[in-house]
Amino acid sequence: xxxxxxxxxxxxxxxxxxxxxxxxxMKKRISSLMDxxxxxxxxxxxxxxxxxxxINAINTKVTNIQTRAESMIxxxxxxxxxIEEFSSKTSEFSDSVNHLKTxxxxxxxxxxxxxxxxxxxxxxxxxxxxxxxxxMFEKRRxx
Length: 143
What we know:
Layout: H1 3-113, H2 115-142
């Protein structure tokens, strides 16, 4: 066994020891790096969960707003129908008032043009109503 053989074995042993030491150093560095990766993953998951909770809260609020908007739209529709009905009744009332105005004018003209006829027709009825009222008044007075 020559010196070259011992030198070669020493080099191989040193290389193996160097590889083991290098492996241990790399393991230590990789394990610390993996710990950092795990903490980053946990932070990311917590942030994602927080954002998901915020999204759920926003979706709930949007749903509530949409529900309120739909009910407001329904109320507006009902009120528009009510206004339309009120408008039609108002126009009917206006037409009736106009009809009464024209009828009143016509009746006034009839009374003015023929006063004799109207007094003959209405005067006996007025006298009879007056007598009936006087009799009722006297009966109530006696009680």
